[in-house]
Amino acid sequence: MERSEWTWAKDSLVRSITELGFPKELGDEIAKNLGSPKAMKRMEAYLANVKPHKIELVVDEMLAIRSDIDNWRDKKAAEEANARYNELLYYGLEQDEE
Q: What confidence tens digit (pLDDT) does each residue in 19-59 have?
């Protein structure tokens, strides 16, 4: 990921948050917690469509997006572990014979 893409997404998200009347610091923290440009763009879409009037709603959506990301990562890790386990069952343990 390019630094400029992350910076652009962060700046755009912070601008969207401040345009709704929330403090810039809230935007900075939300961007930091979301972490990726894709997540920030998703948050920005939420802000544009819902136009929340309470900080709690903004933070709640940020937590929901983080939860989705964490669940996706957990799912991918479980799929990888399952694939390795299936390989082990199919091929067995490899032992060097000397």
A: 999 999 999 999 999 989 999 999 999 999 999 999 999 99
Question: What are the extents of the domains in the chain?
Answer: 3-89
Residue 17's nearest CA partner among 67, 56, 58 is 58
Give me the DSSP letters along 35-50: -SHHHHHHHHHHHHHH
- Rounded Cα distance between 86 and 74, Å, is 18
Global confidence as pTM: 0.76
Residue 82 has pLDDT above 80, yes or no: yes
CB 46 within 8 A of CB 61: yes
Helices (H) and strands (E) in the chain, counts: 4, 0
Which residue's entry shows tokens 């992350």?
6
Cα angle vertex 77, ends 69, 39, to 5°?
15
CA–CA distance, 77 with 98 (Å, rounded to integer): 35
- For residue 70 the two structure tokens come to 């964490």
